[in-house]
Amino acid sequence: MLPAIAVILFACNNNPSIKTDFKPIDVKYPVTQKDTSVKDNYFGTIVADPYRWLENDTSAETGAWVKAENEVTQGYLKQIPFRDAIAKRYENLFNYEKFSAPTKEGDYNYYGKNTGLQNQSVMYREKLSGGDPEIFLDPNSFSKDGTTSLSGISFTKDGSMAAYNISEGGSDWQKIIVLDAINKKQIGDTMLDIKFSGASWKGNEGFYYSTYDRPKEGSFLQGKTDNHKLYFHKIGSSQKEDKLVFSGKKESIRYISAQVSEDQKWLFIYCANSTYGNSLLVMDLTKPGTEPKTIVADMKNSHGVADVDDKYFYIQTDRNAPTSKLMIASIENPEEANWKVLIDAKAEVLNASSAGGSLFCSYLKDATSKVYQYDHSGKEIREIALPGLGSASGFSGKISDKELFYGYTDYTTPYSIYKMNIATGKTDLYKRPNVQFKPEEYESKQIFYPSKDGTKIPMIITYKKGLKLDGNNPCLLYAYGGFSVSLTPFFSTSNIILLENGGVYAVPNLRGGGEYGEAWHEQGIKTKKQNVFDDFMAAAQYLKDNKYTSTDKLAIEGGSNGGLLIGATITQKPDICKVAFPAVGVMDMLRYHKFTAGAGWAYDYGTSADSKEMFDYIYAYSPVHNVKAAAYPATMVTTADHDDRVVPAHSFKFAANMQEKQTGKNPVLIRIETKAGHGAGRSTKQTIEEQTDKWSFMFYNMQVNPKY
Questions:
Q1: Residue 176: which domain range?
Q2: Which residue of 452, 497, 503, 686 has the lowest C-beta tally within 10 Å?
Q3: Chain centroid to CA 104: how far?
């Protein structure tokens, strides 16, 4: 944290007349050994995999390679003269109070707060009757370096106990700790090896959770996990005594989750084998010993319970409704054949929730939020007046709640919290952060551009008002395009670094996402995956054609499935941009399904084992297998040693291949974060360092002199 006087002096020191000498930085890549004997036969096609040894995350050889690559990357970044200035500016921007919306549990309101530069947000509580706030949980005390995070918490209905998840180093493998919420003392032993699950309480007796059998030692972080099991943990007993409640009988189920209804009468069980589609079962908790009853048997569509009352289950489904609709199922006969429509599908994508005896329907209109309040007969009460065209979230709560708190943000508005009276709809601003940024000086506009096949794709472009469109503006194009994920407007202090230096931030809503429902998603999966890459390349062309930027001033970025997007884009069109940031990407498309929960991604990707047609299609765009000798953009691949969702070997193999085959002068680096995972839970220190390196690398290679 900078002292006030230092901030003033630093702000006065922004002298654009001080020019950087953008001399080339010499890079000598580590020698990456190749094993030419490693080959696979896919339907008669022999595919070499010379860097497969990098898949062994526990070997000394891989460890040495990671160390050597990080030394090269850090050596390069240290030579960028304005790197420290960017770090100071970003630290200053990041240093503001951040809050999460309060939730009522028992006699308290709980909320998260970060004073500015704390590595992890602290969980506070205040008595509903009034009084000073007190710390309930401080994740900064979980580890010395701030890399252990609070990743979820669940309270009993009366608020007397809580079960919270912690993630160490960003791993998806987590621990659950149970607390007496009144005196904040731990109850029982710490539960180990929990994955893709929180706790759902059944009274004060105990809770349901899901996990996998622990992979064999030596491959814990990347071992395959495809047999999820639902357990019940009784308070006061040991974890080894936990009762198996539900699992696959004839074949394994990859994902199982459980939800106890607020009235504590029902346990809903969701089962899925991929990232889209689920079956739905219900168990009557008022009748001990009863078996789960099937509501939806197949996993062809998505179904979720939004609310329960004495007569009905309120179920959101996209069966025969790609944008989703809300159905009612009688408690006596809840099977799908007996459902009735309560709120029919609209052109916009629905997300239903409940609070205070009302139903709330949040819709996506061209990737921005519209929210309506309904009663349980399906009658509209009102449209919620939102602060603008952006992203609103949090319209859920308990049936007894009289008010709810929701969050709003857009590309120029920091995440702000609003308090709404559920009965009247009256809304007041509850908390707005004090960021050193003037939103009124910037603007966002949404445009629609044609993709290769003529499909209109929306894109929101953000920049400083009055920006001259002459093709000389640095621009970051960010996208995802997969798994029905919707990219809606969000505020980032990191992006201020770009915007206040005359930059442009652009986010297109590619096919494969969920912005227009399941039909939009379906247009970007399996043998239609190329649509996603074409949509992205067309976005880049639009920005150039309309003089927002040029090839020499364009950077592209995406993470996870978005990392695949960047990898495929630069291997198909190496001259598309000046800088590329493929982050934690799925780069080896022939083998992704062999690690962790990767097999569950097959709904989007298909697998190389499915058929010759599917293999041929995947092989044609798999980034690792399509790196050819070419002049690539300045590229900084990013990954993390504890990423057990998209294992770092994807990025290792891709970076090694690119370093070998780069024919141009641009650097190809890999930045490997230690004690970090796929992204969630990173410390403030890690975040500031990573974003500093990104902007430094981008500006230097574009020969843009930041004003700091």
A1: 151-260
A2: 452
A3: 26
